[in-house]
């Protein structure tokens, strides 16, 4: 089923309605749709490199707006959000997120939103935890813009062969960021003498 959805999205990238479809896919992926917009953004940038930044901006705007929907699902429909997370394979997401958000705050959104991790997990759990909405929006803008403009830049400059490299580097950069946060948190606890258990991975 996922493969059929992937092929369908790739087909949309070649249609005359590609920009509108990119907006819709980017919006939906932030709250419930399983296919990331990168797979559509890349061939669109390759076909029309002069519109790379416009497509990246469109992707960012739609993803942030979709993130607001995901946040609203978590905030207003607690039970439904929990069931949706379970369907997505993350039944312990709320318990894990409570620990991560308590210790790292908006850095959780920035780090996870930059990686191939489904963004809907971040947006829904942010709403479930009633995380600060203005900070949530700011973090979403930063992390989604960084991701989509990076994809647009690499595809525009080097072509689609670099996409697997992008995905590996996204995970690497996010891992480095998380490692730095862990080091900073550990140092803060050590210097300040405050306790706190480690979060689950």
Question: In words, what does this structure look like?
Answer:
The structure is a single chain. This protein is mostly helical and 201 residues long. It is built from ten helices and no strands. It has helices at 2-13, 18-29, 38-47, 52-76, 78-87, 93-104, 106-113, 119-128, 133-158, 163-192. Helix 1 packs parallel to helix 3 and helix 2 (18-29) packs parallel to helix 4 (52-76). The radius of gyration is 17 Å and the shape is globular.
Radius of gyration: 17 Å
What distance separates the N and C termini?
A: 28 Å
- Secondary structure: number of strands: 0
| Helix percent band | over 70%
Summed up, the helix count is 10
CA-based shape:
globular
What characterizes the major β-sheet? Answer: none
Order of helices and strands: HHHHHHHHHH
Percentage of residues in DSSP E strands: under 5%
- Average pLDDT for all residues: 76
Taking pLDDT < 50 over at least 5 consecutive residues as the criterion, the unreliable ranges are 187-196
Assembly state (oligomeric): single chain
- Provide the structure class: mainly alpha
């Amino acid at each position: 089923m996922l493969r059929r959805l992937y092929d369908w999205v790739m087909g949309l990238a070649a249609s005359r309605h590609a920009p509108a479809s990119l907006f819709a896919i980017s919006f939906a992926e932030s709250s419930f749709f399983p296919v990331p917009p990168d797979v559509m953004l890349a061939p669109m940038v390759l076909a029309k490199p002069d519109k790379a930044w416009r497509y990246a901006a469109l992707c960012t705007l739609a993803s942030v707006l979709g993130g607001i929907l995901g946040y609203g699902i978590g905030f207003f429909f607690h039970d439904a959000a929990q069931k949706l997370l379970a369907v997505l394979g993350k039944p312990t997401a709320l318990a894990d997120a409570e620990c991560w958000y308590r210790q790292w705050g908006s850095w959780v959104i920035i780090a996870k939103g930059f990686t191939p991790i489904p963004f809907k997990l971040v947006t829904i759990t942010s709403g479930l935890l009633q995380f600060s909405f203005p900070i949530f929006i700011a973090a979403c803008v930063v992390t989604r813009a960084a991701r989509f403009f990076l994809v647009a830049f690499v595809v525009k400059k080097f072509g689609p062969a670099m996409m697997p490299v992008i995905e590996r580097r996204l995970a690497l950069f996010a891992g480095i960021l998380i490692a730095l946060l862990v080091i900073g948190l550990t140092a803060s606890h050590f210097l300040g003498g405050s306790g706190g258990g480690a979060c689950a991975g």
